[in-house]
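Allow me, if you will, to draw on your knowledge of protein folds for a short while. I have a record of one protein: its chain in single-letter code and its fold written as discrete structure tokens. I should value your view on which stretches of the chain appear to form regular backbone elements. Thank you for your consideration; the sequence and its tokens are set out here:
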Amino acid sequence: MRIIKKTNIPFLSYRWIAMGISLALILGGVGLILFGPGLNLGIDFVGGTQVTVKFQREPDLEALRKTLARLTVGEPVIQRFDEPEKHEILIRVENPKGKEGDFTRPIIDLLNEEFNGSLGDAFDLNLQGVKELTELLIEANPDGIATDDPEALQAHYGPMAEAVMDWRKQHGIFTSVDEIDNVEGLSDAVRAFIKQRSAAGAFSLLGAESVGPAVGADLREKAELAIIFSLLGMLIYIWVRFQLPYGIGAVGALFHDVLITLGALSLTQREINLPTIAALLTLVGYSVNDTVVVFDRVRENLRLKRSQDLQPLMDESINQTLSRTIITSGTTLMVVLSLYIFGGDVINTFAFVLLVGIIVGTYSSVFIASPIALGMTRLMDRYRKRRREGKRRR
């Protein structure tokens, strides 16, 4: 299938302009990484604790930041998560240097001190869990179960406590104790007791994760090795399948794609975590696949037109695969763009990396990989020619 007619665009005639633009983008990205804001490494790589909390009302982020700054020497990262009207906040605190451990509890304690100071000894429906509520109900025994058997009391009150917490999980937060009336499966006595004994705190905990500094450093090292070995693997594969100049051209294009994408991540200050590394590795595989298609056509044309100069033959090969490149990249781009726009915050950075990578990777297959392969082929031909001349003189 061809969506464009036969073309005869001299792509390699513009290689110096294209490589100049690419060099400027790479240097700009490296400058941002080394001298600008740098890469925003997530807790997967630097170690720390990340919690997501949901507030009843929009919190004062500056006051929140000052409160949590008491916990760590570095400034905590506090940002809105999901739609603003949901009042969901992501909090990330790096572990103090050299310290291991989960800081979720200290974070929650500070938030409690700031926002739930007026609750007293009331049971907080938004922070306590099934176990705590079950124990409270067993101790009070509002249904008056005539037994002292802990297992019997557990069997009676446990499902009710689970029903309350399932409702909170579905809705994110209790905004009032009166919402207990909406929970199904509670006896009248239990419902009345919970409303009397409980309070709806200012926030609820939606999720938490923690990574120690040693584990983070190990993950960072392994992520770097994964990218390096994937690039080396691509070099060896294309060297074996084609020739060394083509392998160097493909790997040069991959370095180009990864560096520009990292520059975009630094510019936008998107968090780099394990899913981001997965997206970069996906980008490496996608980009080299596009390059291999072009090089495969070059190899076929070399067999048919051995006497033709390499540059016009490469231009011809790129033009012959242009329709395929546009179709493949265009359809993939539409899918990734949909993920980026509608996929939500969880996969937004993953989609962003692929979005930038597909655009840059398609461009590099034409304007970076092929010119590098052309230049390396000519360089190696001149080297072989000098060696032959040297042997003749001897």
